[in-house]
Design goal:
The protein is an alpha/beta fold and 230 residues long. It is built from seven helices and six strands.
């Protein structure tokens, strides 16, 4: 029996994954004209236009390449006022701004069939802004699980190569599962819980080829799952 090295196995898996993705695009080309599905990515970084937003843009680009029926939108929470205490029933202070209600119709729109959450990693977990957003999503939980059966994925961006990204992804996935969302990982050839990116790579996240591969695979996986469900 021929022994297959780990390197050969990985190479074979990558090729197989590429072929399968091509076959899927061909099979899904018959989507009804005019029938659109939107994927919304939410950047939960307090810094606008930085590594988390960049990673999500690349993720959405990969999703769009799956099929012409896929539309995308990036929402950045940076600069928005989202008080997580409201989820616990505590009132806002007099005159305090609340930007969460404006996000509700953008996420519950029937055309939105996929939601990707992106967060930077702080001490092996999500940002406080991400936590506040997910806590406020209790509104969807109470409202007959308004996010139920939407496809979800997670991107985590850490300052070091192994800086708690996967732990963070799992934490966000757990919150999304409570909403009855259909949480998917980053997909073949090395399927994991989600996309994990290293912002400390020389040249930034756009030079982290390993991380970007998981980001692109996640976008593809979310889009493929939406089309299969449709």
């Amino acid at each position: 029996m021929k022994t297959i090295s780990r390197r050969d196995l990985v190479r074979t898996s990558v090729v197989a994954g590429a072929v399968a993705a091509t076959d899927f695009r061909a099979a899904s080309a018959g989507t009804a004209p005019g029938e659109k599905s939107k994927i919304v990515a939410i950047s939960c970084s307090p810094r606008p236009g930085q590594t988390t937003a960049t990673s999500l843009k690349i993720c959405l680009e990969a999703a769009q390449k799956v099929n012409d029926s896929i539309e995308t939108e990036l929402i950045e929470l940076a600069g928005l006022k989202i008080n997580g205490n409201v989820a616990a029933g505590l009132p806002l202070d007099p005159g305090e701004k609340d930007d969460f209600p404006a996000l509700v119709p953008r996420l519950t729109d029937p055309q939105v069939r996929g939601i990707i959450i992106g967060t930077p990693v702080y001490f092996s977990n999500m940002s406080s802004l991400c936590k506040a957003f997910l806590d406020r999503c209790i509104a969807f939980y109470r409202d007959d699980l308004a996010l139920s059966n939407k496809v979800a994925g997670v991107v985590a961006v850490g300052g070091t190569r192994n800086g708690g990204q996967e732990v963070t992804v799992q934490s966000v996935c757990a919150a999304l599962a409570c909403q009855e969302m259909l949480v998917v990982g980053n997909g073949r050839p090395g399927a994991r819980f989600g996309a994990t990116v290293w912002s400390g790579a020389e040249g930034g996240v756009t030079k982290d080829e390993i991380g970007l591969a998981t980001v692109r695979n996640l976008g593809r996986r979310v889009a493929e799952t939406i089309l299969r469900l449709a």
